[in-house]
Design goal:
2 copies of one chain form a homodimer.
Chain A (H helix, E strand, L loop, with lengths): L3 E6 L3 H13 L3 E7 L2 H9 L8 E5 L7 H11 L5 E5 L4 H9 L4 E4 L4 H13 L6 H12 L9 H10 L5 H7 L4 H15 L4 H10 L6
Parallel strand pairs in A: 1-2, 1-3, 3-4, 4-5
Helix pairs in contact in A: 8-9
The structure holds a DNA duplex (30 and 30 nucleotides).
InterPro entries (chains A, B): CheY-like_superfamily, NreC/VraR/RcsB-like_REC, Sig_transdc_resp-reg_C-effctor, Sig_transdc_resp-reg_receiver, Tscrpt_reg_LuxR_C, WalR-like
Protein name (chains A, B): Two component transcriptional regulator, LuxR family
Keywords (chains A, B): DNA-binding, Phosphoprotein
DNA sequence: CTGAACAAGGGGAAAAAACCCCTTTTTTAT
DNA sequence: ATAAAAAAGGGGTTTTTTCCCCTTGTTCAG
C-alpha cells in the first residue's frame, strides 16, 4: 500500500525531527521532507526537489517566512496542496487567516497524538479537519455581519510610531506630514477602532501584532 | 548498561510525545515520564510515582504552573535534580530566571537534535550545558553592575491601570488615592525605568509581562 | 534617638493629547 | 466624466499629561 506522503515545515528542529519520528511510527504515513521556514519549502517545491506531498504540516510562527505568508503563496500557486496548520497560537485572527487562505485544518501543538493521527487521515480522505475551536470561529464569522477593519499602509506606519515615546509633532516630522494631518490619522483611527486614547492604540497595536515588542 | 533516565515536562503533547520517540532512538537514554505542566510533575514526584530521573526536560511556557514556578519549587525542594530548560523563548529575562533558579542548561526548541543529544550527555556527565547565548548573558551580568529593578505591589497595580484608557484621575479613584499621589507614582517609575511617557510605561509593562494582552 | 527612606499628598505651569468642525486636492469607482 | 471617498492640512479649545519643587507623617536601621 502506498503511504501518505507528508512534508513538515517548522523552524523548531527539535520538534520537526521528533514529529517525523512520531509519524514514522504510523504505518500509513511517511515524511518525505522537512523545512525550517516557508522560503526553504517554496524553493524546494519549485525545484521539484521531492515527490508531491499529500499533506503539508505547516507551522505558523516561523522566522524568515511565516505560516501565513507561506499559506498565501500556496493558495496562489498550488491551491491543490492540502495544508494542515500546526501552531501554539490559538487566537482567532491567526486561525482565520490560515483557514481563509486555504488551510484544511488548524491543530494546536498540545493536541493528543491520537487526534493528530485522525486529523491527518481525515485531511487526506475528506479533504479537511476542523476542530471545535476552528468551527466555532467559522460560525461566529457567519453570524456577526463582520465589518472587517482594514488599516492602510500609512496608518500602520503612524501606529508604529505612536507606539514609541515620540510626541505627535515628532511623529509628523518622521512621516513628513504636518502635525495637523497626524491629528487626522489619530482621530480617524480612534473612531475606526473605537478607542479614546493613544494608550488604547498602543494596546491595539500590540494585540494585533502591528508592533512587536 | 543502565540508561540515563529522563522526564519531560511540556504542555505540547505533540511535542513531548514526539520528543520521547526521538530520545528513545538514542540508546543512552530512556524517557520514564511525561507531564503537561509543573503541577502534574510535582504531584507525581511527591508521590514517588517513578524512579528518580537523571535529567528533567522542562518547558518554560506552560499553563497552570510554568517552567519558572516549577524551577523555583525544584530549587527549594530537590536542588539535586538536573534540569535542562527547553523553550522557544530566547529573551534574557526568562533565560536568567531559569538559570539563576538552578537550571543546568537552556536550549531553544530550534536546536539541532545532534546538539540536543550532546547537551543531554553533558548535563548528565558534567552537570551543565551552557550554549553561547546563555553564557553571553551570564558574562553580561557579571560585567555590568546590575542594578536590579524591583517594582512594589502598589506600583505594579498602578502600571496595570496605566495600561488602560483610564485617565490618571480615574486611576486614582480606582486605587483610592489622590491624583497627586498617582503623579508621584508615575514620576517615580519614569525615573526608575528611564521612561518619558505613559506610552513607554505601557510598552515596558507589555515587554515585561506585567500586563497580558 | 535620629536621620534616611518612603508613602501620601499638594501648587502651579508648560507641553502634549484629544476634540470639533472646516478647506483643498487627489484618487477611485461607476 | 463625474460624484464620492480619501488624503492632507488647518484654527481654536479643552482636557490630560508631564514636570519641578515642596510638606507631612511613618517606618526602620544604626
Amino acid at each position: 500500500m502506498e503511504k501518505i506522503k507528508i512534508i513538515i515545515v517548522d523552524d523548531h528542529l527539535l520538534f520537526s525531527q521528533s514529529l517525523a519520528y512520531l509519524i514514522s511510527k504510523y504505518k500509513e504515513f511517511e515524511v518525505i521532507g522537512s523545512y525550517a521556514n516557508g522560503k526553504e519549502f517554496i524553493s524546494a517545491y519549485e525545484s521539484a526537489d521531492f515527490n508531491l506531498p499529500n499533506i503539508v504540516l505547516l507551522d505558523v510562527n516561523m522566522p524568515i517566512m511565516d505560516g501565513i505568508e507561506t499559506m498565501k503563496w500556496i493558495k496562489e500557486h498550488h491551491a491543490e496542496l492540502k495544508v494542515l496548520a500546526l501552531s501554539v497560537n490559538d487566537d482567532e485572527e491567526t486561525i482565520m487567516k490560515m483557514i481563509t487562505n486555504g488551510a484544511k485544518g488548524y491543530l494546536l501543538k498540545d493536541t493528543d497524538p491520537i487526534v493528530f493521527k485522525e486529523a491527518l487521515l481525515e485531511v487526506y480522505n475528506k479533504g479537511f479537519y476542523y476542530t471545535e475551536i476552528v468551527s466555532g470561529f467559522l460560525i461566529n464569522k457567519l453570524n456577526q455581519n463582520e465589518t472587517k477593519i482594514v488599516l492602510k499602509e500609512r496608518e500602520v506606519e503612524f501606529i508604529k510610531l505612536a507606539c514609541t515615546e515620540k510626541t505627535y509633532k515628532e511623529i509628523a516630522e518622521g512621516m513628513c506630514l504636518s502635525p495637523k494631518t497626524i491629528d487626522g490619522y489619530r482621530e480617524n483611527l480612534f473612531q475606526k477602532l473605537e478607542l479614546k486614547t493613544r494608550i488604547g492604540l498602543v494596546l491595539y497595536a500590540v494585540k494585533h501584532k502591528i508592533v512587536c515588542i
